[in-house]
C-alpha cells in the first residue's frame, strides 16, 4: 500500500483533545446515567462543567487540588455502578495519585477512566508538569488498560467505546491543539487493543502512538519521496499491545522504528521489543522518544524538534537507520 | 443465615469478649498475625456490626445497606472472625487457610475473595476517600444509609486522609461516619508522642483537628461499651446535607491483654505460644468480667 489518500493530517484542522474530551463526556452524562466527570481544579469558573455541576451535583465534581482523594472518590462511585471519568494533568494523576490508582482502581478493579492530560512534551512547562512514565507504569499494573489516542476525533471514538469496557482505563492525551491524523471521511473501526495499520511498508514500519502518529505519518511521506516503502501503525493501545500487528510489521520489513512522546525506557519501544523477543521474531529496532532525561523547558514547537520527535527528526533518524 | 443482632450493652460486651478470645486462639493457630490493632478495635467494631449498621449476611448487595470500609486494612482478621461468628464462613477454614495461596482470607481483606468485604484495603489512608465516593454515589440516588470507616490513629498521619476530611465537610457528606481506633501506637511509635495532635494532643487533639475541618467529632472511652453505644446511638439522622461525623475511641493497642498493652508497638504483629495463649485467654476472661461489672 502506498500514499496517504485517506490520511491527511496536515490538512486537518487542529483540535484540542482536552476540551474535546470534556465536551464529549458532558454529552455522555446526559445520555447515560452512569457517567460521571471529575476534575481537580481544572474547570473554568461559570463554564460548562460548573453549570453541569449544578444539575448533577453528585456526578459532576471539581474536587479542588486533591488528586489522591479524586481518584479514590472515582473508585467509590465506580463500586456503586457509576462510570467515572477523571481528568487532570498527567503528572498529578499518574505520579501523585499512583497509590490510589494502584490500590483503589487497579487492585480493586473498578471501571474508572483516568484521563491524564499534558502528556510528554506537550505541556511545555517542564518536568513537574509533564509525564514521561505512564506507559511503563500502567503496563506493569495488573488490571489496567493503557491507551494513547492520536487525535481529538480518536478520543471521541475511544470514549464511546469505553462505555461498555469493563476494566479500568488510563487515557493519555496531550495538552494543546494537535492536528487531526484522520480526516472525517476516513472510516476505521476503533477497538481497544487493536492497532490501526495506516499503511504497510517493506523497508521500514514505524509504530507510533499518541502525538507520535501524526509526526510519523509526515516522516513516512518524506521517506517515500526518497523511494522507501514505509509503513505506519497507529498503536493507540499500549496495553494490551496488539502483538499480531507488531509481529507482522517486523516480518514484513525487518526494521521497526517506534515513536512515542514518552521515556524510551519502559515505553512503547520496550514493549515492542518484548513482543518480538518473546515471539522469536528478529527485527532491527530504533526507539524514538525522550532519552531517559527530565525534559527541557520549552513550548512544543521548539521542544519536539529538540528531541528529534518532529517529522523531520523522525525522518532523519529513519534515514540513518535505513542506511546502516 | 439469620441476621445477627445484639441490642443490649451487656450482650455486646459478652460478644466482644468472645471475639477477643477467638482472636487469641486464632493468633496461636495462625502463628503470626496483626493482633494489637484488632484487639483495640474489637469493642467498637462489634457494636457497629452487631447493632448499628444492620449488617445482614443474606443481603450483602442491598443498595440501601450501610457500607463499612476497613481503612486500617491490617485488621482484616477482626472482620473475618466476626464473619465466622455470624455463620458466613467456617472458623476452622479461616484459621487453617489464613494468608495462604488461593484461599479467601489474606493478611489484608480482598472484596473479590471475601463476601462482606466491600473494598480491598491494606495501604493506609484510603478509607476516608472511599467514603467520599460512596457517599456521593448514595446521595446521587437519595439513599440515606451510612458509610462507615474504621481508621487507626497512626494511619491518621497520612496526608490523603486530610484531603478527604476537608472534602467531606465541604460537600456536606453527613452520611459518613469515621471511627478512629485511637490505640496510641503505630508499628514504631507510641503516638502520644509522635505526632502531637492539635493543641491538646491525643484523642482530644485529633477531635480538634476534625472540628477545625468542619466535622462533628466526639471523643469516647473506646473500652467502654456503654460509651460506644451512647455515641453510636447519638449519631444525627442523615440529611445528605450536613456535617460528617467522627468518633474517636481512646483505646490501647492489645486492649484486654496486659502483656500486649504494656508493649503496644511490639504487639503490632505477633504470635502466641501455648503459655502466651493461656495467659491471654485468662486475661480476656477477666477483662470481659470487669467490663460487664461496669455496665
Structure in words:
The complex is a heterodimer of chains A (324) and B (295). Chain A is globular. Chain A contains 12 helices and 14 strands. Chain A has helices at 17-31, 48-55, 67-79, 90-95, 98-107, 134-139, 152-162, 212-225, 243-253, 268-279, 300-306, 311-323, and strands at residues 14-16, 35-39, 60-62, 83-89, 113-117, 145-147, 169-172, 177-179, 196-199, 204-208, 230-234, 237-239, 255-263, 284-290. Chain A has 2 domains: 12-179, Thiamin diphosphate (ThDP)-binding fold, Pyr/PP domains (Rossmann fold, 3-Layer(aba) Sandwich), CATH 3.40.50; 190-323, Rossmann fold, CATH 3.40.50.920. Residues 1-13 of chain A have low confidence and may be disordered. Helix content of chain A is 39%, strand content 20%. Chain A is α/β, with parallel strands linked by helices. Chain B has 10 helices and 7 strands. Chain B has one domain: Rossmann fold, CATH 3.40.50.970. In chain B, the strands form 2 sheets. Chain B has a 5-stranded parallel sheet, with helices on both faces. By secondary structure, chain B is an alpha/beta fold. The interface between A and B is medium-sized, with 29 and 28 residues.
Amino acid at each position: 500500500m502506498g500514499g496517504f489518500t485517506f490520511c491527511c493530517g496536515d490538512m486537518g484542522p487542529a483540535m484540542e483533545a482536552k476540551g474535546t474530551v470534556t465536551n464529549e463526556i458532558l454529552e455522555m452524562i446526559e445520555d447515560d446515567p452512569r457517567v460521571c466527570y471529575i476534575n481537580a481544579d481544572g474547570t473554568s469558573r461559570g463554564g460548562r462543567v460548573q453549570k453541569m455541576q449544578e444539575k448533577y451535583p453528585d456526578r459532576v465534581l471539581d474536587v479542588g487540588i486533591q488528586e489522591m482523594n479524586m481518584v479514590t472518590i472515582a473508585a467509590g462511585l465506580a463500586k456503586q455502578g457509576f462510570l467515572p471519568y477523571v481528568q487532570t494533568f498527567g503528572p498529578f494523576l499518574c505520579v501523585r495519585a499512583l497509590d490510589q490508582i494502584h490500590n483503589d482502581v487497579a487492585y480493586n478493579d473498578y471501571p474508572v477512566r483516568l484521563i491524564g492530560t499534558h502528556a510528554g512534551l506537550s505541556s511545555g512547562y517542564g518536568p513537574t508538569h509533564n509525564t514521561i512514565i505512564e506507559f511503563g507504569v500502567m503496563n506493569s499494573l495488573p488490571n489496567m488498560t493503557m491507551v494513547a489516542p492520536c487525535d481529538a476525533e480518536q478520543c471521541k471514538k475511544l470514549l464511546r467505546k469505553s462505555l461498555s469496557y469493563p476494566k479500568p482505563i488510563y487515557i493519555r492525551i496531550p495538552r494543546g491543539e494537535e492536528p487531526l491524523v484522520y480526516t472525517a471521511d476516513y472510516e476505521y473501526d476503533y477497538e481497544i487493543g487493536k492497532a490501526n495499520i495506516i499503511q504497510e511498508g517493506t523497508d521500514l514500519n514505524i509504530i507510533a502512538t499518541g502525538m507520535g502518529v501524526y509526526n510519523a505519518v509526515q516522516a513516512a511521506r518524506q521517506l517515500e519521496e526518497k523511494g522507501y516503502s514505509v509503513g505506519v501503525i497507529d498503536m493507540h493501545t499500549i496495553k494490551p499491545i496488539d502483538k499480531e500487528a507488531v509481529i507482522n510489521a517486523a516480518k514484513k520489513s525487518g526494521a521497526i522504528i517506534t515513536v512515542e512522546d514518552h521515556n524510551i525506557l519502559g515505553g512503547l519501544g520496550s514493549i515492542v521489543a518484548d513482543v518480538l523477543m518473546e515471539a522469536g521474531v528478529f527485527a532491527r529496532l530504533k526507539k524514538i522518544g525522550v532519552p531517559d532525561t527530565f525534559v527541557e523547558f520549552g513550548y512544543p514547537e521548539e521542544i519536539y524538534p529538540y528531541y528529534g520527535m518532529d517529522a523531520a527528526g523522525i525522518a532523519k533518524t529513519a534515514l540513518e537507520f535505513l542506511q546502516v | 443465615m439469620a441476621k445477627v443482632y445484639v441490642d443490649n450493652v451487656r450482650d455486646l460486651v459478652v460478644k466482644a469478649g468472645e471475639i477477643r478470645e477467638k482472636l487469641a486462639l486464632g493468633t496461636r493457630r495462625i502463628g503470626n498475625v496483626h493482633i494489637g490493632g484488632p484487639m483495640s478495635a474489637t469493642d467498637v467494631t462489634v457494636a457497629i456490626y452487631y447493632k448499628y449498621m444492620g449488617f445482614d449476611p443474606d443481603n450483602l448487595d442491598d443498595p440501601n445497606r450501610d457500607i463499612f470500609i476497613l481503612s486500617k486494612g491490617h485488621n482484616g482478621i477482626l472482620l473475618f472472625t466476626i464473619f465466622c461468628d455470624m455463620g458466613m464462613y467456617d472458623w476452622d477454614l479461616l484459621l487453617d487457610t489464613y494468608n495462604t495461596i488461593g484461599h479467601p482470607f489474606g493478611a489484608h481483606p480482598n472484596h473479590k475473595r471475601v463476601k462482606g468485604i466491600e473494598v480491598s484495603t491494606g495501604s493506609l489512608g484510603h478509607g476516608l476517600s472511599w467514603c467520599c465516593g460512596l457517599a456521593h454515589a448514595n446521595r446521587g440516588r437519595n439513599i440515606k444509609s451510612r458509610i462507615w470507616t474504621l481508621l487507626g490513629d497512626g494511619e491518621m498521619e497520612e496526608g490523603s486522609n486530610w484531603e478527604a476530611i476537608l472534602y467531606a465537610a465541604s460537600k456536606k457528606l453527613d452520611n459518613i461516619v469515621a471511627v478512629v481506633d485511637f490505640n496510641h501506637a503505630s508499628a514504631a511509635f507510641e503516638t502520644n508522642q509522635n505526632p502531637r495532635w492539635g493543641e491538646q494532643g491525643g484523642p482530644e487533639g485529633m477531635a480538634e483537628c476534625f472540628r477545625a475541618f468542619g466535622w462533628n467529632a466526639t471523643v469516647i472511652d473506646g473500652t467502654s461499651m456503654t460509651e460506644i453505644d451512647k455515641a453510636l446511638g447519638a449519631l444525627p439522622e442523615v440529611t445528605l446535607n450536613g456535617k460528617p461525623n467522627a468518633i474517636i475511641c481512646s483505646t490501647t493497642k492489645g486492649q484486654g491483654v496486659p502483656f500486649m498493652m504494656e508493649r503496644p508497638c511490639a504487639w503490632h504483629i505477633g504470635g502466641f505460644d501455648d503459655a502466651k495463649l493461656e495467659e491471654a485467654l485468662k486475661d480476656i476472661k477477666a477483662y470481659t468480667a470487669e467490663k460487664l461489672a461496669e455496665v
